[in-house]
Amino acid sequence: MIGIVIVTHGRLGDSLVETAEFILGSRIEAITAVSININEAPDELRGKIVRGIKTVSRKKGTLILTDMFGGTPSNLSYSFLEEGKVEVLSGVNLPILLKAVNSREKMELTKLSEILEIYGKKSISLASGILKGNKRN
Asked: Buried (b) or exposed (e) across 98-133, using 16+ Cβ within 10 A?
């Protein structure tokens, strides 16, 4: 199983985990959220991420999901990239998280990360366009 660490501004990651568990109807194994307060020292924040990775670490690697490319959570997380062991995907949303949880036992970390990137982009919809019959890609 691939472990999942959600690194976000504030408590967004905690809310995503809580909501995913509500939808799935059970506690999710090997997942944790790391809340980033930009007023904390960078070394303290890196330490939080290290502890998060250790908490969820499994033989198949760790996926770090961050809220926004270029933000502090993402920038800190990039230093943990390790091919085949730790991957970082920015732009987490609830559909990405649910897909990650439901797919992480079926594939390797690199493949899962690639699929989640595509899936996340497709999970964004403009309701008025759909209601008007516009095709989705």
From this structure: bbbbeebeeeebeebbeebeebbeeeeeeeeeeeee
Q: How many angstroms separate the Cα of 137 from the Cα of each of 91, 119, 123?
A: 19, 11, 10
Which of 24, 33, 87 lies closest to 60 in space, CA to CA? 87
Determine whether 27 is exposed, middle or buried from the number of CB atoms within 10 Å of its CB (0-12, 13-18, 19+): exposed
Helix, strand, coil share (%) of the chain residues, nearest 5: 50, 20, 35
Q: Are 91 and 114 in contact (CB under 8 A)?
A: no
Contact 12, 68 (CB under 8 A): no
Q: What is the pLDDT of residues 81-133, one digit of tens each?
A: 999 999 999 999 999 999 999 999 999 999 999 999 999 999 998 888 888 88
Residue count of the chain, please give it: 137
Is the separation of the CB atoms in 95 and 120 below 8 Å?
yes
